[in-house]
From TrEMBL:
<dbReference type="InterPro" id="IPR009057">
    <property type="entry name" value="Homeodomain-like_sf"/>
</dbReference>
<protein>
    <recommendedName>
        <fullName>HTH tetR-type domain-containing protein</fullName>
    </recommendedName>
</protein>
<keyword id="KW-0804">Transcription</keyword>
<dbReference type="GO" id="GO:0003700">
    <property type="term" value="F:DNA-binding transcription factor activity"/>
</dbReference>
<dbReference type="Pfam" id="PF00440">
    <property type="entry name" value="TetR_N"/>
</dbReference>
<dbReference type="InterPro" id="IPR001647">
    <property type="entry name" value="HTH_TetR"/>
</dbReference>
<feature type="DNA-binding region" description="H-T-H motif">
    <location>
        <begin position="45"/>
        <end position="64"/>
    </location>
</feature>
<dbReference type="GO" id="GO:0000976">
    <property type="term" value="F:transcription cis-regulatory region binding"/>
</dbReference>
<keyword id="KW-0238">DNA-binding</keyword>
<dbReference type="InterPro" id="IPR050109">
    <property type="entry name" value="HTH-type_TetR-like_transc_reg"/>
</dbReference>
<keyword id="KW-0805">Transcription regulation</keyword>
<feature type="domain" description="HTH tetR-type">
    <location>
        <begin position="22"/>
        <end position="82"/>
    </location>
</feature>
Length: 233
């Protein structure tokens, strides 16, 4: 009976402690994102991040054993947010490649409107400041970035791409999209018709057309009437 009376207060205490841990961790991540994007990975330090978060360096290490692990946590959090945005993307009905357009544009728009998340992603690709990161962790982060475009792999398969083609196009889509985002971030594109978003949409249209054309050709070949043999010649 006594243990039953003590259980609810104990559970409440555990919940409060977990809330405090989550809050402190979020504050550390927010401070790290600000420091990384302001100073770059190479010039950033746990000491500076701790100062921004209002903690001691030792308190930071209680959550993250290294700057690289802290960066990885930030990037994975960013990728999780990308997943959520793509999951909410709704295609326009009546267009064969609407699903591909909706998902790919949701991915692109996220990075186009979240400059700090884009910078973190570009840090990963450049590898600058990530010396000391375990190869396994680096590989996991690169794979996680590719996975954000997995919904586009599924959309490409609905257009007729086989699994190998769809995954190859995912790599091209990733490279093309990030390339345009890099150019946009440098303010090299100014005219509306050459905006990064417009160029990305054009790329998606051409990509979809290739598979739609191939699909129509395949159907035509299957339904074509074979030539008749002239029995009287």
């Amino acid at each position: 009976m006594q243990s039953t009376n003590l259980k609810p207060p104990m559970e409440a205490k555990i919940r409060r402690q977990q809330t405090m841990v989550d809050t402190r961790r979020a504050m550390v991540l927010a401070a790290a994102k600000a420091v990384f994007t302001q100073l770059g990975l190479e010039r950033s330090s746990i000491r500076e991040i701790a100062k921004r978060a209002g903690y001691t360096p030792g308190a930071i290490y209680a959550y993250f054993p290294s700057k690289q692990e802290l960066f990885a946590a930030l990037l994975e959090e960013s990728m999780h947010r990308v997943d959520g945005v793509i999951a909410q993307a709704r295609p326009i009905k009546g267009r064969p490649h609407a699903l591909l357009q909706a998902r790919a544009q949701a991915w692109f728009s996220f990075f186009a409107t979240h400059s700090r998340d884009l910078e973190l992603t570009l840090f990963l690709l450049a590898g600058s400041g990530l010396q000391g990161m375990a190869p396994e962790l680096s590989q996991r982060l690169h794979a996680r970035l590719r996975q954000t475009l997995d919904p586009c792999v599924a959309a490409l398969q609905t257009l007729g791409a086989d699994p190998a083609q769809a995954h190859a196009e995912r790599e091209a889509l990733l490279a093309h999209g990030l390339g345009l985002l890099m150019v946009q971030s440098s303010a090299s594109l100014t005219a509306p018709e050459t905006s990064a978003q417009a160029l990305f949409v054009q790329y998606l249209d051409r990509l979809a057309e290739r598979f739609e054309t191939a699909s129509v050709s395949a159907i035509t070949e299957k339904t074509a009437i074979p030539p008749q043999v002239d029995l009287f010649s």
